[in-house]
Amino acid sequence: MAQEYPAGDARPRRRGRKLLIGLVVLLLVVGGLLVVADRVAVGVAERLIADRVSQEVSKQGAQAAAPKVEVAGTPFLTQVLDGRYERISIQLRDVQASVEGDAVRLPVLDVDARNVRASLDTLRTGQGDVVADTVNGTGTISYDSLAALLNRPGLTLGEQGGKLAVTAPVDVLGQNFTVSGTADVTVAENGAVALRFSNLDAEGLPNLPLARAVLNNYAKGISVDVPLPDLPFQLAVREVRPLPEGLAVTADAKDVPINSAG
């Protein structure tokens, strides 16, 4: 025979379970709304920073496609209230700037800003500064634009065994030869890229002192300091190294405004 419970005992339990379920559902809804609001706020901030970065790039006389901005760290709204952001990543594509009338092209420039300070009022009004404690940038200079700066007809650059390799047609004693060799690549004190070519050679070159002198003079002529355009965000070049896709550039800066003044 089934045991019977007083009706008064069952109802409060059912009511209590309903209240508990309702509270859980309410918390899930509120939490979901907060997550949505957080992501919406991130999107607004990323668009604002992207607009200001575009202004900064134009201000420095460079051109680039619309920047892609990503604000890291969660929850975002807590960072907004604190006015400090863990990390902001900026990707610039097709960066072009002029150096002595020739265009230097960086297909991609990745910028990583850390400990970024931006007040709530700056985000709200679009006025004021967004300042990063540190900024690191990595990009690649195309070999075509680097070769154009050397201004030698027919000269091509590339990577060979981790070094910068060159091939070029050269007239030696009235004959045309294809010269090849490699260069040491460093950063000069003025921030230019220092190219130092040595041991150039050409197949079939006559074993004559005068022929070798012509080749050595050509090597000296292309062993120059190539000035780079001013990079965005006050980035200073620290290292360059040849890669198959181009000359990789590493740069950094501290206490940098990553937007134009409002």
Keywords for this entry:
262 residues, alpha+beta, five-stranded antiparallel sheet, 5 helices, 11 strands, 41% strand, elongated
What does it look like?
With 262 residues, this protein is of the alpha+beta class. It has a domain at 145-226. The protein has helices spanning 7-59, 76-82, 120-125, 143-150, 209-222, and strands at 68-72, 84-99, 102-117, 131-141, 156-160, 163-172, 175-187, 193-202, 225-226, 236-243, 246-257. The strands form two sheets. A six-stranded antiparallel sheet has the order 1-2-3-4-11-10. The protein has a five-stranded antiparallel sheet with strand order 5-6-7-8-9. It is elongated. Pfam families: LmeA (PF11209). This is DUF2993 domain-containing protein.
Q: Using DSSP, what is the number of strands?
A: 11
Low-confidence stretches: 22-35
Class by SSE composition: alpha+beta
Describe the sheet with the most strands. Answer: 6 strands, antiparallel
Arithmetic mean of pLDDT: 77
Give the helices and strands as they follow along the chain.
HEHEEHEHEEEEHEEE
State the separation between the terminal residues, measured CA to CA: 82 Å
- For the largest sheet, list the strands in their spatial order: 1-2-3-4-11-10
Q: What portion of residues belong to β-strands?
A: 35-45%
Rg: 30 Å
Query: Portion of residues in helices?
Result: 25-40%
Query: What is the general shape?
Result: elongated
Q: How many helices in DSSP terms?
A: 5
Protein name: DUF2993 domain-containing protein
Organism: Micromonospora profundi
Keywords: Membrane, Transmembrane, Transmembrane helix
Transmembrane segments: 19-37
